[in-house]
Amino acid sequence: MVSREPVAPGLGEAAAEEEQDELSRRCGDFMAQPVSGLRELRSRRQDMRSRMEMLIMETQSQVCRALAHVDRGAAFTVDRWERKEGGGGISCVLQDGNIFEKAGVNVSVVFGHLSEEAAQQMRSRGKTLKTKNGKLPFCAMGVSSVIHPKNPHVPTIHFNYRYFEIENADGTKQWWFGGGTDLTPTYLNEEDAVHFHKTLKEACDQHNPELYPKYKKWCDDYFYIKHRGERRGIGGIFFDDLDSPSKEEAFQFVQSCAKAIVPCYIPIVKKHSHDPFTPEEKLWQQLRRGRYVEFNLVYDRGTKFGLATPGSRIESILMSLPLTARWQYMHTPPEKSREAEILEVLRNPKDWVH
C-alpha cells in the first residue's frame, strides 16, 4: 500500500480563488456594490462587459473621492436605481458644497431591447442593424459626469466613457466604445488649458500619437452650439463608434483616458477654488451655463439617446444640468474684455498642445 501526500489545489483553482478575492477587494473600494453583482461578474470575469463595468465603477469611485476631498463641505448622495426593462445604475451627486454647486458622477449598466427611436439614431450613424421579430437585444454601460463649481474661475468639466454591445438576428455581435473629457471655463486661463490638454494628450499618446489630434478636432466639432456659432467650451477629446484595432486595445485606450480625469482637472480646481470674484463675474458664469444647458438639451446625442430609451432614469440623464443658470436677452460683452476673450476661443478653437 502506497501512502500519498494530500494533494494541493491545482494552480488553476488557486489562481481562480485569488482572482475572486481580488474582485471582492476592488468592489470594496467602490461607492456602492456593482450593478451586476459579484456573482455575475465572477461568472464572466474575462468578458468585456464585466471588465468595463469594473472600470466604470472604479472611475466613479476615484473621481468622487477626489472631489469630496477637495470640497470638504458636502458628501455625495449615493442613489442606487433599477430599470424595470433590465439593469440599473448608481448615481452619486454632491450639491451645495464649499467648492461645487453640483457634482454628479453616474454609472449605468442597462440591457434589453432597443426602442425603434434609439435604433434609428444608430442607423443614422451608419450602423447596420439586423432585428429579429422587430427586436434588437442590446447592452450599454458607462460612467458619465458633469461638475459645476461655484467659483467662476474654476471651470466646469464633463466626461463620459461607455461600451455598447448589440446582438443581431443571426447571433453575431457588434460592439464599440465611445467617450471623452472636455473642459468649459467661464474665463480663459491659458496655463490651465495647456495643462488639461497636455494630460489628455499624454493618455492618448501611450496608444497612438495620431489619436489626440484626431479626437481633439472631433471634440471641437461635436460640442458646437450651431445656433450660437460657438463651442460649449475649450474642448478636450471625444470619440465614438470605436471598434478597432481590437477590442482589447480599444479597452486599454479607454482605461488610459479614464485614469487621466483626476490629474487633468483636480490641480486646476485646487489652484482657483479660493480666487476672489465679483458679482459681474458670477453673472457671466450664469450666462455661460445657459449655453451649456442649450447644448445638452438641443444637441447632445447621449441625452437624446437616454430620453429615447424605455425605462431610462430622467433624474440621472438631466443630472448634467446646473442648479442655476441665466438667459439674458441680447447680452453682448464689451470688446477686449475677459468675457470677449473666452468667446473668441469658443468661436475659433486653438491648438493648446503642439
TrEMBL record:
Key words of the record? Heme biosynthesis, Oxidoreductase, Porphyrin biosynthesis
Which reactions appear under catalytic activity for this entry? coproporphyrinogen III + O2 + 2 H(+) = protoporphyrinogen IX + 2 CO2 + 2 H2O
The ranges of region (Disordered) come to 1-22
Q: What is its EC number?
A: 1.3.3.3
Q: Which InterPro entries match?
A: Coprogen_oxidase_aer, Coprogen_oxidase_aer_sf, Coprogen_oxidase_CS
Please cite one Gene Ontology biological process associated with this protein.
heme B biosynthetic process
Q: Name one GO cellular component term.
A: mitochondrion
- Name its pathway: Porphyrin-containing compound metabolism; protoporphyrin-IX biosynthesis; protoporphyrinogen-IX from coproporphyrinogen-III (O2 route): step 1/1
Query: What superkingdom heads the lineage?
Result: Eukaryota
Q: One MF term in GO for this entry?
A: protein homodimerization activity
Pfam families membership: Coprogen_oxidas
Subunit and interaction comment: Homodimer.
UniProt lists the family membership as follows: Belongs to the aerobic coproporphyrinogen-III oxidase family.
PANTHER family the record matches:
COPROPORPHYRINOGEN III OXIDASE, MITOCHONDRIAL, OXYGEN-DEPENDENT COPROPORPHYRINOGEN-III OXIDASE, MITOCHONDRIAL
Protein name as catalogued? Oxygen-dependent coproporphyrinogen-III oxidase, mitochondrial
State the species of origin.
Chelonoidis abingdonii (Abingdon island giant tortoise)
Its lineage reads: Eukaryota, Metazoa, Chordata, Craniata, Vertebrata
Q: Which gene encodes it?
A: CPOX
